[in-house]
Hints:
Elements: H1 4-8, H2 11-20, H3 26-42, H4 44-52
Amino acid sequence: MAIPELKRNPASILLILENLNDDLSEVVRRSVANNLNDIAKDNPQVVFEIAKK
């Protein structure tokens, strides 16, 4: 179930995902990737900027 406010502005989620990106657990890293994939559907430029880092 999507949350409209987070689809419009995913900034609060991105802060969390950026902190979890280098987690030791592969399950956590896959979850981060899945979340970024979902965010990219509505905000591709935001995810592109993260990928450039």
